[in-house]
Amino acid sequence: AGAQIRLHDALRLGIAIRNAGTPVRYDDESVPAPLAVRAGGALTWRPGLLRMSSESAPDLLVALLDVSTGIISRRSWYHAGVEYRIGGLLALRGGWRAGPPGSLGGPSAGLSAGLSRPGRTGLLRYRLDYAMEFTTGFDRAHAAGVAVEWTSATE
């Protein structure tokens, strides 16, 4: 559950409670979900640096900053990110996260980079996403996704 408020055309603030609900169950065991509060803000700007033509969608630069704190653990994670949407064609993004020591005893931190390609066909809007996360040490995680949304014929 969460809420978001727009303070200005370019500034939004939000807060959310995560994992509020029943415990996680496996077989006969149950463990409480890691209840957390996450709060942050987003600042947007339309620079128009890479516009292909006056008919193309305007570019958009989004900068994000937030903190997530565990209610029981009292541990906090800090996140920052930037996304640059080139018209309606492509979104390039990068991010940073840092938090308490991980399983190896050192600070947990990571960088991520990704891209997104939106599209539309008939009544479907879709987005293809790819991201790579670099964590402390030499670990890398890859993520790919597809999002599909049905739309109305009048949109």
What can you tell me about this protein's structure?
It is built from no helices and 11 strands. With 155 residues, the protein is mostly beta strands. A 9-stranded antiparallel beta sheet has the order 1-2-5-6-7-8-9-10-11, with no helix packed on it. It has a two-stranded antiparallel sheet with strand order 3-4. It is globular, with a radius of gyration of 19 Å. The mean pLDDT is 81.
- Count the DSSP helices: 0
Element pattern in H and E: EEEEEEEEEEE
Oligomer: single chain
Rg for CA atoms? 19 Å
Total strands: the figure is 11
Poorly predicted runs? none
Mean pLDDT score, rounded?
81
Please outline the major beta sheet.
9 strands, antiparallel
Strand arrangement within the widest β-sheet reads 1-2-5-6-7-8-9-10-11
The end-to-end distance, rounded to whole angstroms, is 28 Å
Overall 3D form: globular
Summarize the model shown.
The chain has 155 residues and is an all-beta fold. The protein has strands spanning 2-8, 11-18, 24-26, 29-31, 36-45, 60-70, 76-86, 90-101, 107-121, 124-135, 140-150.
Q: What are the SSEs and their pairings?
A:
Layout: E1 2-8, E2 11-18, E3 24-26, E4 29-31, E5 36-45, E6 60-70, E7 76-86, E8 90-101, E9 107-121, E10 124-135, E11 140-150
Antiparallel strand pairs: 1-2, 2-5, 3-4, 5-6, 6-7, 7-8, 8-9, 9-10, 10-11
List keywords for this structure.
155 residues; mainly beta; nine-stranded antiparallel beta sheet; two-stranded antiparallel ribbon; globular
